[in-house]
Amino acid sequence: MSTDDKNRAIAAAILPLVGGAGNISSVAHCMTRLRLGLHDRSLVQDEALKALPSVMGVVEDDTYQIVLGPGTVARVTPELEALVAEAPRPAHSAEDLAAQGAALRAERKAKNATPFKLFLRRIANIFVPLIPALIGCGIIAGLNGLLVNLGWLPGVTPALAAIASGFMALIAVFVGYNTAKEFGGTPILGGAVASIIVFAGVAKIDVFGQTLSPGQGGVLGALGAAVLAVYVEKWCRRWVPESLDVLVTPTLTVLISGLVTVFGLMFVAGEISQAIGDGADWLLVHAGAGAGLVLGGLFLPLVMLGLHQALIPIHTTLIEQQGYTVLLPILAMAGAGQVGAAMAVYLKLPRNGSIRRTIKSALPAGFLGVGEPLIYGVSLPLGRPFVTACFGGAAGGAFIGFFSMLGDKVGSTAIGPSGWALFPLLDGNKGLGATIAIYGGGLLVGYLVGFAATYFWGFGKELLEEFDVETDAEPETAPVAAGTPAAPAAPTPGAGPEPEPVKV
Known about the structure:
By secondary structure, the chain is mostly helical. The chain has 19 helices and eight strands. It has helices spanning 3-17, 46-51, 72-86, 93-112, 115-127, 131-150, 157-169, 171-182, 187-198, 218-239, 245-305, 312-322, 328-331, 333-348, 353-367, 372-382, 384-405, 432-457, 461-467; strands at residues 24-29, 33-38, 57-60, 64-67, 206-207, 210-211, 410-412, 426-428. It has a four-stranded antiparallel beta sheet with strand order 1-2-4-3. A two-stranded antiparallel sheet has the order 5-6. Strands 7-8 form a two-stranded antiparallel ribbon. Helix 1 crosses helix 3 (72-86), helix 8 packs antiparallel against helix 9 (187-198) and helix 14 runs parallel beside helix 18 (432-457).
């Protein structure tokens, strides 16, 4: 079967289990999840969906989300869209199902959404589309640094440096564009106002007794400038005569927002950005082990609450300011704890073939930092293993934080990946070898502590009696050989969410 046929087969298997084409109002995807807008949630066959070999789990938020994993989801989505478009629509379903869908969405939003979480989601929607470019440029930057250190290809490394740095030099423009789009303005006007921040000519302007620097304020300044531009544009649309709108509205939007940006936002956002960088450095230098323990231990609960999205602008600011974010490697330890916990579950439930199969299938994704399959399919439903997985994340975070106190910074040049997928993006202040060793050590600690905590404290007598029962028979497999990340085999956000991938 060709790859296209395989992806179409996956889409064809999913379609009837979500109520058919007539039950789907929208189709979209993020890095790991197929997101479906549904008219009638009751038509979905959850258990049958989870049983499909290609489905790692399901998540219900403002949309119905099917976890397929990175790469697969991007290929299955267009196939499902094509099947939905090709399917005949029942003539009677439009109004009734639309009304039912609106009622269900309103009910879910009233129950689960708060203004603060909705705001964080909007912020995430601004930065998440930038992640592929951050990853690509980050890996190229890492490759270039390696070639420079080895003294190889001196004629190529300047070109690689330009390729890696071009996006980061103009990231404010992309943030401005996405911000205006997300807040209901004209995207190009948001980008135009944000571009002022990176324009070299601002170095001729004095504000509050200080000469501005190109890029001052960074992504935070761009975000603020674009939001202001949206409000100015909306005000103009209300008051400017329609015959003059095409000339007056964009002019006033760029002029008013641009002046406020130059004579206020750039300075204020620059001070905030500097405080974020200084604060992160101070925290890890003076309280690295404790800070790492708290951050690594609490990241999974933050993901469950959707509050991890508040960290995205902070990560981006640190990358823009220092070249890497020192927070992401610590937060990535949460996924390591999840992997270790799943390994212990695998051993503690030798008779439950169903859970063991889930763990085995989700383990590769867990090692690569995609944690939803293990969270929603294993640890969270069991309860205590979710808590003991957090112990593993706390231990791994404390390990990396301890080395930060010794002066060894470990950072990531992009956001998105975690687990083993973060290795190509690592950077630090003591050389690549030391950085990789510390991060790898943190993962190992997270695996071991997550495993031990779950094995010895993750199961009470009642939980074992309830779940260690015969399901579909599964051949007994030997424990993972010594030398793998942490005893037996098993699995695990990435990075959300949604809860987003526990990828940070």
